[in-house]
Specification:
It comes from Neopusillimonas maritima. This is DUF4202 domain-containing protein. This protein is mainly alpha-helical and about 220 residues long. The chain has one domain: Orthogonal Bundle (Hypothetical protein af1432). Helix content is about 65%, strand content about 0%. It contains 12 helices and no strands. Helix 4 (about 55-65) crosses helix 6 and helix 9 (about 160-175) packs antiparallel against helix 10. The two termini are about 20 Å apart. The relative contact order is 0.17. The model has no long low-confidence stretch (mean pLDDT about 95). The structure holds fe (ii) ion. Fe (ii) ion binds near residues 65 and 139.
Length: about 220
């Protein structure tokens, strides 16, 4: 374990505005190696919506990939593209189902909240109306921000060919619709490409430790 790596991430997503429901969801997903990506997606929705993201949008951002934490989900093959609709739809529907079931177990969550969160999670890969496009864009921005080490790991370990990981990053960029999101994307897209190509600190990281940190509520919220 590298204390200094952990130091870089400790408290990065501390946010006094996290609601009781959001904190419960973070407890639920603690240990998921994409928890950092989920927290970052929520943070991006706040930055991308002038005047503030709705509670439903923030919550959907925080849980949109939840299904990947629970075994049995869909998976692509090395032959399928990252934008393969069979995979994207299966992933989005399974996440929406898992999130809805969890929300129904929580006390006092309005039906309208559950239905809107479900719709947003279902749309997070494909966008739709203004708010749904923001969620899709926030997912892309957060991917560049928080999962560049995973892109490097995929390519470096040989799990996926470089070309396919490049294609994933390109797809995450080109699907962005809101201008404000594209303005924020280019720099961090380039940084993620540098990570993928082993041109920055990611190549020196202990990736096992990086993965642990990415799933640690304690580290990310600075508890
Ligand atoms: Fe995501």
């Amino acid at each position: 374990m590298s204390a200094s790596l952990e130091d870089q991430f400790r408290g990065r997503f501390y946010d006094s505005t996290l609601s009781k429901l959001e904190l419960a969801a973070i407890d639920w997903l603690d240990g998921f190696y994409q928890l950092e990506h989920l927290l970052s997606t929520r943070a991006w929705t706040i930055r991308l919506v002038p005047g503030g993201a709705s509670p439903e949008l923030k919550f959907a951002a925080l849980v949109h990939d939840a299904e990947r934490f629970f075994p049995g989900g869909p998976s692509g093959t090395p032959d399928t593209a990252f934008d393969d609709p069979d995979y994207l739809f299966a992933h989005s529907i399974r996440s929406a189902d898992i999130v809805e079931a969890w929300l129904r177990e929580q006390p006092d969550v309005p039906e309208s909240f559950i239905r809107r969160v479900r719709a947003l999670v279902m749309r997070h890969e494909i966008g739709g109306n203004t708010e749904e496009d923001i969620l899709q864009a926030a997912d892309s921005l957060s991917w560049f921000d928080t999962l560049d080490w995973l892109a490097y790991e995929w390519a470096f370990s040989g799990k996926l060919p470089y070309e396919k990981v490049y294609a994933k990053l390109d797809w995450m960029l080109t699907r962005i619709r809101p201008t404000i999101a594209m303005e924020n994307a280019l720099g961090i897209y380039r940084d993620a490409m540098a990570s993928l190509e082993g041109r920055n600190a990611v190549a020196e990281m202990d990736l096992k430790d990086r993965r642990r940190i990415a799933g640690s509520k304690k580290v990310l919220l600075g508890l």
